[in-house]
Amino acid sequence: MTDINKLLSEAEANTNDDNAGAYEITCKNQLTGAKDSLPIFGDNSLGQILEGVAAGIGINQNNKKVIFTNERTKKSTGDQSMLAADFGLTEGDCLGITDGGHVA
Predict the structure, then answer these.
(1) 4-30, pLDDT tens digit by residue?
(2) Whole-angstrom Cα distance, residue 35 to residue 37?
(3) What CATH code is carried by the domain that includes residue 33?
């Protein structure tokens, strides 16, 4: 399993300013309401974000039916390879996640 902090550190190392491009989002388990905040970059995949918060919000990251919802735009996807920027995530957004295949 890849550590999200390691991935973020690697992304930071590729920038001139250690914090350039990073922004914080909140991730929420759509079924239980459990939340966790996470600093991300636009080139983090939704799967990488999931790895960083799954245990903390009670999501089974190995479930093939994980659904992500950008609560601001109402856009949903099951594509874990989609980049945060392509999904429209910006500073302060809430990323809803469910592992049951149904968005609550």
Answers:
(1) 676 666 666 655 455 568 999 999 999
(2) 7
(3) 3.10.20.90
